[in-house]
Design brief:
Blueprint lengths: L4 H12 L2 H22 L24 E5 L6 E6 L7 E4 L5 E4 L3 E4 L5 H13 L7 E7 L4 E6 L5 E4 L6 H7 L13 E5 L5 E5 L6 H11 L7 E4 L7 H10 L4 H5 L6 E5 L3
Length: about 270
């Protein structure tokens, strides 16, 4: 079909006319609905995404902590009482957990931190001396350790120099239990800024060999805790709560028989 010049001009004029004029009232209604939908951000309803548990790699304590060394039998201390040298002593914590000092006799030291023993000695000496100033200097203490906890054959503390990798630490623990979630192993570590973080081990290849390769390549730091959760563990929330949110109660109590240190919350 050949369109004349006048017809073409009328057609072009029609294109320049408003959308409602070209499509009638129905077109106007449709155009208004389309614009309204765009402005309102209309889209097809989406299926609701189920809530998933927080993965260990996102677990970071909101509170900040510091580590305090926990004294034990065999540790050697220098107890200095300023201006009273006759009661100052170098002592070794006995197998019963006590130390002996002049004027105050036996004092429990094992299981306490240095500031806690300092406070106890100051209180004891205050009953015999006027405003005593006590200082405690650890002279010989246990070597740095790493710890293996969770679904392993034995919960153990391993000297760091003997287990610089996660694989070596796991070997000291006797390996995984059958119920262990071997692909969900995490390291629990205190960061430089005082936050406790759960760091999941990255398994690069499938199958059991991939897990052990990852363990072998994971370098540990002193006081790291290698944690192995149970298989199909529904207690991911409990894991985060015990180890990240409430470590003073959960983590300290879990490894209290083995650990060289204690987490103490930094109060603002």
């Amino acid at each position: 079909m050949v369109m004349s010049i006048s017809s073409r001009a009328g057609y072009a004029e029609g294109l320049r006319a408003p959308l409602g004029a070209r499509l009638g009232w129905r077109g106007s209604v449709l155009a208004v609905l389309a614009v309204s939908c765009l402005l309102a951000g209309c889209e097809r309803p989406r299926a609701k995404t189920p809530d998933l548990p927080v993965p260990p790699d996102a677990a970071l304590s909101t509170a900040r902590f510091r580590k305090e060394y926990v004294l034990a039998s065999g540790d050697q201390l220098d107890v200095l009482v300023r201006r009273v040298p006759e009661v100052s002593r170098q002592v070794v914590i006995r197998p019963d957990g006590n130390i002996s000092l002049p004027l105050i006799n036996d004092v429990k030291a094992s299981g306490l931190t240095v500031p806690e023993v300092d406070a106890e000695l100051t209180a004891r000496f205050s009953s015999r001396l006027l405003n005593p100033e006590v200082n405690i200097i650890p002279l010989s203490v246990r070597q740095p350790m790493v710890y293996v906890a969770g679904d392993v054959t034995n919960v153990v503390a391993v000297p760091f120099r003997e287990a610089p990798t996660a694989m070596q630490a796991l070997a000291y623990a006797g390996g995984f239990k059958r119920s262990a979630a071997t692909k969900d192993v995490s390291l629990i570590r205190l960061t430089d800024d005082g936050h406790i973080r759960a760091i999941p081990l990255e398994v690069q290849s499938k199958g059991q060999p991939g897990v052990y390769m990852s363990l072998r390549e994971t370098a540990l730091q002193p006081d790291d805790i290698l944690f192995v959760p149970e298989s199909k563990r529904s207690q991911v929330g409990r894991f985060i709560d015990d180890f990240i949110n409430k470590p003073v109660n959960g983590l300290n109590s879990l490894v209290s028989s083995y650990v060289n240190f204690r987490f103490i919350q930094i109060l603002k």
